[in-house]
Design goal:
This protein is mainly alpha-helical. Helix content is 73%, strand content 0%.
């Protein structure tokens, strides 16, 4: 088990969408952009290798696919292109095997490609496409605005601290020292509670 970070999810969505659309160059490019394949290799050659894995199984029903064979072919490709074993890719491949197994039980005639296409397409639109870029720009603008609004306070505090240093250092009141000591003691107690018994 494991969880994929947001960047890995976007990369895998691009890779899967490339396979679903039979755009193996896009799938290959996503591998290169993510740094999964060393840059001295050819994107076109890698796309051809992905095509050799994807085309024989494209459009097949679940009962006509052998995901273990597909995974072996993918491992062979990673070996040829000196790709390091990445935990997130192994997690994705493991998930593909599970999906295939569940699909065979529920509906052996299901076409996993057709079923996955709208899900992956919507994910791409929300997380990778123009709408995602607009959302990210808005988040960045909100963060920049908050920082800008707080900047006068930061500048004033920094100026006061600099002046105190020039005047002989920063002095703490007895009350401040007591509160710092209590906070440190409390942290140590919490840390000790979290340690396993030996």
């Amino acid at each position: 088990m494991g969880r994929l970070d947001e960047r890995s999810r976007r990369v895998f969505a691009e890779i899967l969408y490339g396979f679903i659309r039979r755009d193996y160059y896009a799938a290959a490019k996503a591998h290169f952009d993510a740094g999964y394949v060393p840059s001295h290799y050819s994107v076109d050659a890698f796309a051809t290798a992905l095509r050799s894995v994807g085309e024989p199984i494209f459009g097949r029903d679940a009962n006509k696919m052998d995901m273990s064979k597909v995974l072996q072919q993918l491992f062979d490709v990673t070996d040829v292109f000196d790709m390091h074993l990445r935990p997130e890719l192994v997690l994705l491949q493991r998930t593909m095997v599970v999906v295939e197994g569940v699909a065979r039980i529920i509906d052996p005639q299901i076409n996993l490609w057709e079923t996955a296409e709208p899900v992956v397409r919507d994910y791409i639109a929300k997380r990778v496409g123009p709408r995602a870029l607009l959302d990210q720009a808005k988040q960045n603008a909100d963060a920049a605005r908050s920082l800008f609004e707080a900047f006068p306070q930061f500048a004033e505090a920094a100026e006061q601290a600099a002046q105190q240093l020039l005047d002989g250092g920063i002095t703490l009141s007895d009350d401040t020292v007591d509160r710092l000591a209590e906070a440190i003691r409390g942290k140590r107690r919490r840390d000790k509670k979290g340690q396993p018994a030996t």
